[in-house]
From TrEMBL:
PANTHER family: GLUTAREDOXIN 2, GLUTAREDOXIN-1-RELATED. This is Glutaredoxin. It holds the Pfam family Glutaredoxin. It comes from Kangiella profundi. Signal peptide: none annotated.
């Protein structure tokens, strides 16, 4: 099973869209809210390279945000990535 982590904030529409796609695909994920926590947000930025939310990590690979997630799905690359356990 793949490991998926998504860094979010409470009122982010892109976070909602990204989680909706993962839910639709029945993907289990760990959500880490960074609302009002500058240290946690700085940690997110240090491991993903991105400051905006959502930031999505699949099997220790930072894939970017919501648009990146949907782009992978449109290209048919998301499901194979989710099935890769390495």
């Amino acid at each position: 099973m793949s490991q998926v982590t998504i860094y979010t904030t409470r009122y982010c529409p892109f976070c909602v869209r990204a989680k909706a796609l993962l839910d639709e695909l029945q993907v289990d994920y760990k959500e880490i809210p960074v609302d009002g926590d500058p240290e946690l947000r700085a940690h997110m930025e240090s491991i993903t390279g991105g400051y905006t939310v959502p930031q999505i990590i699949i099997n220790e690979r930072a894939i970017g945000g919501c648009d990146d997630l949907y782009a992978l799905h449109r290209k048919g690359e998301l499901l194979p990535l989710l099935q890769d356990n390495n």
